Amino acid sequence: MRMLREVQNTFQTELHAMYPKKEIDNFFFMLAEAYYGISRLKLALESDVKIENLEIILNALDLLKKGKPIQYILGETEFFGLLFKVNAHVLIPRPETEELVDWIIAAFKDQGSEFRVLDIGTGSGCIAVSLAKNLPKAKVYALDVSNKALKMAKQNAELNNVEVAFIEDNILNPCHTELVSASHKFDVIVSNPPYVRLQEKALMKGNVLNNEPHVALFVDDDDPLLFYKTICEFSKANLKENGKLFFEINEYLGHDMIDLLKDYNFKDIELKQDIFKKDRMIKGVFS
Ligand SMILES: C[S@@+](CC[C@H](N)C(=O)[O-])C[C@H]1O[C@@H](n2cnc3c(N)ncnc32)[C@H](O)[C@@H]1O
Fold it and tell me: 66, 94, 160, 269: least surrounded by Cβ within 10 Å?
């Protein structure tokens, strides 16, 4: 048996070169809660609390030292107030994506009749599941090329008690111009596709680069808007007239994205910044 407080000190000593003190404490408290059911408050009230099975938290410390994100160590994270399982096959949902979800919910919360939503590149399912949870009139579909990501997304739909129809497909595959028949076009298409150019790799943190799936992150330098162009093209056949297209975007390509949406005859185009004042999302209405 060892005092949990001592383990907290070990975390600080071993990780101080890699993370700020507050973040290390956050890691420690998340792990203490997940592995031993001991909350931050309990530890504050009973500072001499002891634990058995020390290896489990020391293993996690080892992984943190190797740069593994805490979300993958715990196997879960929170997104839009909901719990999501994550593993190495899915991107860890980001706070900026919560802002995109929020934007869509604000636009459709008063919708009185059923409407159809498609999330392209669903990964953990964070966008699709959050929309299904918060927009009861939405019939949500979610597509990904990765079978392993879809398995995780399905689990997340079950975990959060929502219905999402999952589709395994490659959006870049030119054969499927029409996913649905004309009578079943979508009212909303949303996507947070891979948008990091290979040239931006050098700017990225090692823990992202070495742990998160590259299929979820990267696009060729030669054609950084490849996914966006393909999805605009796809929208011509699969989005209803006046249907809305929402994208999360690369902060450096906001103006290129406006031009792209104009080229595809979208109207009411709106570019929106995230809380860090970076161009992060765009929407357009199909005409
Ligand atoms: C940036 S991640 C977004 C994941 C999730 N929607 C989110 O916001 O956290 C991009 C997703 O697109 C998927 N993807 C990559 N290439 C694809 C393709 N050609 N067709 C369909 N999905 C693709 C990846 O598997 C990954 O899950």
Answer: 66
Please choose from 120, 144, 173 the residue to mutate so as to test ligand 1's pocket, defined by most ligand atoms within 8 A of CB.
Answer: 144
Closest atom, ligand 1, to C-alpha of 121:
12
Q: Which among 259, 260, 287, 258 has a CA at the least distance from the CA of 272?
A: 258
The CA-based diameter of the chain, rounded to the nearest angstrom, is: 67
Report the separation in Å between the CA atom of 64 and the middle of ligand 1, taken as the mean of its atom positions: 25
Q: Would you give the DSSP letter of residue 179? A: S
Domain ranges of the chain: 2-66, 87-286
pLDDT exceeds cutoff 60 at 177:
no
Q: How many residues does this entry show for the chain?
A: 287
Quote the CA–CA distance of 149 and 127 in Å, as a whole number: 13
245-279 residue pLDDT tens: 999 999 999 999 999 999 999 999 999 999 999 99
Prediction pTM value: 0.94
Q: What is the CATH number of domain 87-286?
A: 3.40.50.150
What is the H or E stretch that residue 170 is in? Answer: none
DSSP alpha helices (H): ranges in 66-125?
70-74, 95-108
- For residue 49, what is the DSSP state? -
CA gap 42, 33 in Å, rounded: 10
Element counts in the chain: helices (H) and strands (E): 12, 13
